[in-house]
Structures are given as C-alpha cells and as structure tokens.
Amino acid sequence: MKDIVFCSNNCFVLYSAAVQAKNSENKELVPSLPQSPMKERPPKAFHQYSNNISTLDVHCLPQLQEKVSPPSSPPIMFPPAFEAAKVEAKPDELKVTVKLKPRLKAIHSSLEDCRPPSKKWKGMKWKKWSIQIVIPKGSFKPPCEEEIDEFLKKLGTTLKPDPVPKDYRKCCFCHEEGDGLTDGPARLLNLDLDLWVHLNCALWSTEVYETQAGALINVELALRRGLQMKCMFCHKMGATSGCHRLRCTNIYHFTCAIKAQCMFFKDKTMLCPMHKPKGTHEQELSYFAVFRRVYVQRDEVRQIASIVQRGERDHTFRVGSLIFHAVGQLLPQQMQAFHSSKALFPVGYEASRLYWSMRYANRRCRYLCSIEEKDGFPLFVIKVVEQGHEDLVLTDTTPK
C-alpha cells in the first residue's frame, strides 16, 4: 500500500501502510492534533479515498510552538440610517456601540415600513440663525425710563394704568409728604383739620405716651413745643425726640435720629450718638414697624366746630363712607320746628354716602342727602345716583 502524505496547519503527517502491526489500542495514547482556532476554508475539489484508514497508526512530526495571535475584532455591522445599532460582544471582549443621526434625505431600502412619517421639510437642509449686534463707535447713552415709556406709548403695545395722584399731605413734625416706610416714619395720622403727623414721629416724641386702647396723648403739646426746637441733624424746626441722658440738649426729628445713628430702646427712650453705649445692647430696638391700632386722641366736637366756623370750604370732611358737604343754618323762627330730642335739622345741610344699591344685591351707589324747608317744616330729600339709571328722588317729612 502506498504512503499518503498531506499538510494541515504547517504540520506534515505520514500515514504508512507498513505499520499496520500495531492495533488500535495505541491510538488512545497518542495525543490528538490541536484544533485550529481559525475556520478551515472549504477546498475547491473534494477527493474520496477508498482506503480504510481506521486501522492506520498516526505519527506526529515535531511541531513548532505557535505564535498566539490577538483575537480578531468582530466585524461591525452598520445599521440603516434611521435607527441606532448596537454590536453585541462576548463578556471578555470590548463592546462597541455605533449611533448614527438620522438624515432628512429619502432612504430607499426594504425597511421603508419602519421609517417615521415624512415631514414637510423633507429633503431640506438645516439653517442656522445668527444674530449680529452692531454697536456704534463712540459714547453710547442708554435711554432713560421716561424715553422708554414714551416709546412704548407711541407703539401702543402696552396698557399703562392711570397714575396714582400724588399725596400732598405733610407731616407737622418731619415736614415730609405722604406716608412713610413701615419700618420708618410709618403711616400718617390725622391730628386736626388738614393736619397730619407720622405715627412714629408722634410716638417717639418726649411728651407723647400711648394708652392700652392705642390712643396717643399730648400730641398737640409736642407739636407746639416742636415749633420752637431745631434739629441737631438737619437744623430745621419741628424736632421733638430728645436724648434721654440727663442735661443733654440734643434733639432730633425721628427720621433724622435714625440717620444720625441714635440708639432706640424698648422702653421708648433714645440716646444720641455722644451718649449711647458702645456695641450692641440687649434692650436696643432696631425695628420700628407698628401694626396695631394707633390713633391720635383729639376733641372731635371742637374739630367739627372749627369746620363749621370756616367760611370757605377748602377741605373735605369724611367719616367712613359719609362725605360732609355743607352744614346748613337755622334761623331763630325755625328753631322750634327743626329739631328733636336727639338731633338738629338745619336747612341747607348736605352730605353724600356710598351704600348698597336698591336695584342690585352686590353693587353700591351714591346717595345725596339734604334738608329743605316746606310749609315751615323740614323736608328730607334723598337722591339716588346710580350709573346706567336715571336719578331717583325720595322725599319725606321725617328722617326715617
């Protein structure tokens, strides 16, 4: 029998027919050929041998040590353009993830059913929006608030509420107009006809004290004294807050005392910068807001009498929703018929009141109340003024 020699993985193997004496028991002792890590390519031609090689003995020639080549990376399969592809790898190998952004161009493939619905801008490219700001050379003066308001008013793009009328009421102590800050002079309180004082300006005056009901006593006394005292800070009249140190003549307005860094205490005393202790004090008061009910104690009867005595009515007297217009008068011959045990009915009296409407349940209207004379007796007239309706006049001989 002829010898058969073939080559596999650079190893020459000889199959000889002369060694048929050894039986198949020695085959188990012979190590098998190492398997190639690479896949064998299919041969171009297939040969079939009729020899029975099951009884042949195999002898391996000396083999060289193989060089271990690094494992080849798996091939990357690129997915279609409209979806992201992930390449699965073994746990010991590196995982590679490939993400591709979708294009807006049409894709003709067999996966057209999986594509998202086409958009109106199909086939168009993205456009970039660029803004260029040109600043002129030289000095640039930004527009003020008044110019911006005037420009917006010309455009007519905004709705601006009506301006609030300026508050011309002036404090008799500090001479500042309008209500002050809550943590400062605070709100204005009425002292007399067209006379106003800030709450804290009156409260921190030396003569003034507060009752449990919230009434401020001796405010008029402090006002008369303040007309002759000059402030140490602003050098203006009306200062009523003096230093509590004995024989210290420093006196300030309340607002000027804060600016001069005077120290106020919880027992309503004050020390000027020359006599205040250094550092902080446990009884020091640093917050002046007053949220409780506080009013000036005054003689209302004398105040009403001063209104009546004035010939010209330059001021409006209002109590709640009642606005007083004219007090009227009574002649000697009318005294017997124009009064009752509780009230007087002067002819020419006029006042207006805002009260609930007689036509609508949740609306207010204006009622003009006056007293006239008819056949020697008083006639009470009420005129109802309501928007959208004609004026309604109601009369009767009694105020009820």
Summary?
Helix content is 10%, strand content 21%. It is an alpha+beta fold and 400 residues long. The N and C termini lie far apart (150 Å).
Can you characterise this structure?
It is found in: Nucleus. It catalyses: L-lysyl(4)-[histone H3] + S-adenosyl-L-methionine = N(6)-methyl-L-lysyl(4)-[histone H3] + S-adenosyl-L-homocysteine + H(+). Its main location: nucleus. Keywords: Chromatin regulator, Metal-binding, Methyltransferase, Nucleus, Repeat, S-adenosyl-L-methionine, Transcription, Transcription regulation, Transferase, Zinc, Zinc-finger. This is [histone H3]-lysine(4) N-methyltransferase. This protein is of the alpha+beta class and about 400 residues long. Among the domains are: about 190-295, Herpes Virus-1 (2-Layer Sandwich), CATH 3.30.40.10; about 310-395, Double Stranded RNA Binding Domain (2-Layer Sandwich), CATH 3.30.160. Helices cover about 10% and strands about 20% of the residues. The protein has five helices and 20 strands. A six-stranded antiparallel β-sheet has the order 15-16-17-18-19-20, with no helix packed on it. The longest helix has 11 residues, at about 145-155. It is flat. Mean pLDDT is about 75; it is low at about 1-35, about 35-40, about 45, about 50-55 and about 80-90.
**Tally of DSSP β-strands:** 20
Q: Given the C-alpha coordinates, what overall shape results?
A: flat
What is the CATH topology classification name of the domain at 188-296?
Herpes Virus-1
Please state the structural category: alpha+beta
Q: Please give the count of helices.
A: 5
What is the CA-atom radius of gyration, in angstroms? 54 Å
Q: Indicate the CATH architecture of the domain at 188-296.
A: 2-Layer Sandwich
Low-confidence stretches: 1-34, 36-40, 43-47, 51-56, 81-92
The level 1 CATH classification of the domain at 188-296 is Alpha Beta
Bin the strand percentage: 15-25%
- Strand neighbour order, sheet with most strands: 15-16-17-18-19-20
Distance between the termini: 150 Å
Kindly report the average pLDDT value.
75
Taking the sheet with the most strands, its summary is:
6 strands, antiparallel
Please identify which CATH superfamily of the domain at 188-296 we are dealing with: Zinc/RING finger domain, C3HC4 (zinc finger)
What is the H-and-E element order? Answer: EEEEEHEEHEEHEEHEEEHEEEEEE
**What is the percent of helical residues?**
10-25%
